[in-house]
Write a structure and sequence with these properties.
- This protein is of the alpha/beta class and 363 residues long.
- The chain has three domains: 3-90, Udp-n-acetylmuramoylalanyl-d-glutamate--2,6- Diaminopimelate Ligase, Chain: A, domain 1; 100-325, Hexapeptide repeat proteins (UDP N-Acetylglucosamine Acyltransferase, domain 1), CATH 2.160.10; 332-363.
- 17% of the residues lie in helices and 26% in strands.
- The chain is built from five helices and 38 strands.
- A twelve-stranded mixed beta sheet has the order 6-9-12-15-18-23-26-29-32-35-37-38, covered by helices on one side. A ten-stranded parallel beta sheet has the order 7-10-13-16-19-24-27-30-33-36, with no helix packed on it. Strands 8-11-14-17-22-25-28-31-34 form a nine-stranded parallel beta sheet, with no helix packed on it.
Length: 363
């Protein structure tokens, strides 16, 4: 691809030879030849480009390549991360299996496959399932009975999509994700340890038996959603667990039964959302956040990594800590904790002074 075309796609300023043919986008340390386009959008990478065999660079606004950099062209971008999204899309090498059904796949007679669908080895597609046009189903995927997948989806190897799950258009499911497993929902015939602990703060009963509550609901995934590897989204008890359009879910995320996640959220790795929680639109839950059951997180809220959300979070709030509180309060608590040792030392000296003098200190 010619460099001038790349600059146009990036809506970026190009200085130098736009006729250069580019084959790869690389880190400065990986540059091997004149067909490489080197990303040097921060100080650390700019410092590495001296002597690079590449002839073209991408830099951030306000940055200049070192004087000893022997390059023929420089592309300047306003927002490096946005430029990275465009560049990685231009030079991606996605899995594109040929359309058709692999001979080892098992597809129910009444399943419906749209135009151009590719079904890989050892896939199972259940009775009455519908797979939209252009979908790519990689090896060893299971799609349950009555499930519906929209157009142009990509289901990576080993993913499990349960019965009656509904998935929108252009959804990407990474390897070994599970959508539509039963929720973790049980009850004791008589009030047990958890119920009495919540009511009184004490354990006043034991769990003599534990009875299963079946999950007869489903999962509904919107358009343009991505679900990370080894993540799990449980089906609802009698209704649907729902994920809104455009939401991105990282690896190793657990979303419980009856949860509702809004549009364009970012749910980072190791997040756990307990049953019936409500997550608004454009929410960011950073890595390792835990959200308690029946809690709501308002639109545009951001929760810092490792936080434990045990009560409702207002819209447009920034929360942190365990339990999660407004960020300024969480920082104040951390500062106070750092002062505790000094306070303990002061009290020790004060006690020693009183013991040695036999009289209280002056006011």
């Amino acid at each position: 691809m010619r460099l001038e075309e790349i600059a146009t796609r990036l809506d970026a300023r190009l200085v130098g030879d736009g006729a250069l043919e580019i084959e790869r986008v690389v880190h400065p340390a990986d540059a091997e030849g004149p067909a490489d386009l080197v990303l040097a959008t921060d100080r650390a990478t700019l410092a590495l480009i001296a002597g690079t065999p590449a002839r073209a660079l991408v830099v951030a606004e306000g940055a200049e390549p070192p004087a000893d950099a022997r390059v023929a062209a420089v592309v300047t971008v306003a927002r490096p991360r946005v430029a990275l999204a465009t560049l990685t899309a231009l030079f991606d090498r996605p899995a594109r299996p040929d359309a058709g059904v692999h001979p080892t796949a098992a597809v129910a007679d009444d399943a419906v496959l749209g135009d151009g669908v590719a079904v890989g080895p050892f896939v199972h597609i259940g009775a009455g399932a519908v797979v939209g046009a252009g979908c790519r189903i990689m090896a060893q995927v299971t799609i349950g009975a009555g499930a519906v997948l929209g157009r142009d989806g990509l289901i990576h190897a080993g993913a499990r999509i349960g019965d009656r799950v509904r998935i929108g258009d252009r959804v990407i499911v990474q390897p070994n994700a599970v959508i539509g497993a039963d929720g973790f929902s049980f009850v004791t015939p008589e009030p047990g340890s958890v119920e009495t602990a919540k009511q009184t703060g004490r354990i006043e009963a034991t769990n003599v038996a534990i009875r299963r509550i079946n999950s007869i609901g489903t999962v509904v995934i919107g358009d343009d959603v991505e679900i990370g590897a080894n993540s799990a989204i449980d089906r609802g008890t009698v209704t649907a667990t729902r994920i809104g359009d455009g939401t991105k879910i990282d690896n190793l995320v657990q979303i419980g039964h009856n949860v509702r996640v809004g549009r364009n959220c970012m749910i980072c790795g190791n997040v756990g959302i307990a049953g019936s929680a409500e997550i608004g639109d454009r929410v960011v839950l950073a890595g390792g956040v835990g959200v308690a059951d029946h809690v709501s997180v308002g639109d545009d809220a951001v929760v810092a990594a490792g936080s434990g959300v045990g009560s409702n979070v207002p819209a447009r709030a920034v929360y942190a800590g365990y339990p999660a509180v407004p960020r300024d309060r969480a920082l104040a608590q951390l500062l106070l904790m750092r002062r505790l040792q000094g306070l303990v030392d002061d009290i020790g000296r004060l006690k020693a002074w009183i013991a040695s003098s036999g009289t209280p200190p002056p006011a």
